[in-house]
């Protein structure tokens, strides 16, 4: 009874104050511990990038412990020092896939301006990579934010963003410790990818299209599942563009249909110069039976700036992808791979919804490939790193495309076909093609 009376002497307000005091004491202890000693994780590598970084570990530090792809063109790795519902400090890495020609100092200046922050100090660190950094503060606030930027070869970049809420000493120590732990040991896959795209551009897209059957015909795929049930189709055609701008020598049109309850449909228009270092690529999406839809516009300017708008993006994106491959040209790229470089080759592939995704290109031994139902002689595989999905293109002895297999949550088999087969499976094609994008 006496014990109960003792407990009841404390009001609710007093209990709340005690809890707040305890939380504050815990936060203070964590911050003191973080300032005195920063324990780091083992290096967390981003596969096939050459980059490996560490994050703080220990009491209060939380994070996924792995790199995560974020649309449209980067990988991120985060960690946070959390006490209750409060974040005392945060670490945020970004690996940018489309940062060709980035000036780290200019990038930091623009970042500070966009966030309405001012520069307290700046400098450079040279360990495994050269990092330009700035320490920032909000007007009237503490310089508790430190951001570093490093330009990497072949259009990549690494950004380290550290913020310790109201604690400039902790922010500075975290940044210097983390920056000093960054490892950069690139392999040859990215360099081969840049060389590969450069060679494809130098040889000219017109030549590559003609090698696949010329500019007069079209490529028709009948898409089915492994049980041979119809799942959709694709029709693609390239032509010389006499009506385009001075630079737009080729135009491509593509219709993709995926069967389902309502059926999804997309129509793409692609116009480019012979080196495809300047192009426009517009895609409209919808359903045959109402609802949904939208459009994506992708424009690559002569200075290498890519603008992406629409689709699933909440805002327009401007970046510089460098030696990147539009997915619209993946057949031509696969054929060129057979004629050129061998070994693992990493390229950035730009998709019609605006995503820029790294893909590893390899040659596959057709003789032991159970999916090679076409008795193909050559196979080129694209493995898309963020999702683990794969695309395999099969060619005959003369390097003509005979089939394709996609493995992305479910397996789809693409057979080279004709419009008659599509009509038998899906009915009148006019309702899919439309007047403005009809391929004939």
Give short descriptive properties of this protein:
alpha+beta; 8-stranded antiparallel β-sheet; 440 residues; disordered C terminus; elongated; 15-stranded mixed β-sheet
What does this 3D model show about the protein?
Helices cover 23% and strands 40% of the residues. It has 440 residues and is an alpha+beta fold. The termini are far apart. The relative contact order is 0.10. Residues 436-440 have low confidence and may be disordered.
Quick rundown:
The chain has 440 residues and is an alpha+beta fold. It is built from nine helices and 28 strands.
Count of runs of 4 or more consecutive helical residues: 9
Helical content class? 10-25%
Using the alpha-carbon principal axes, give the shape.
elongated
Low-confidence stretches: 436-440
How many beta-strand segments? Answer: 28
Give a quick account of the main beta sheet: strands, pairing sense, barrel closure. Answer: 15 strands, mixed
- Which band does the percent of strand residues land in? 35-45%
Topology:
Blueprint: H1 2-8, H2 12-36, E1 39-40, E2 44-45, E3 51-53, E4 56-57, E5 61-62, E6 68-70, E7 74-83, E8 86-96, H3 104-114, E9 118-126, E10 130-137, E11 145-152, E12 156-164, H4 168-181, E13 183-184, H5 189-203, H6 205-211, E14 219-224, E15 230-240, E16 250-258, E17 264-272, E18 279-287, E19 294-300, E20 306-310, E21 317-319, E22 324-326, H7 330-339, E23 345-350, E24 356-363, E25 378-384, E26 390-395, E27 401-408, E28 410-416, H8 419-426, H9 430-433
Parallel strand pairs: 22-23
Antiparallel strand pairs: 1-4, 2-3, 3-13, 5-7, 6-7, 7-8, 8-12, 9-10, 10-11, 11-12, 14-15, 14-28, 15-16, 16-17, 17-18, 18-19, 19-20, 20-21, 23-24, 24-25, 25-26, 26-27, 27-28
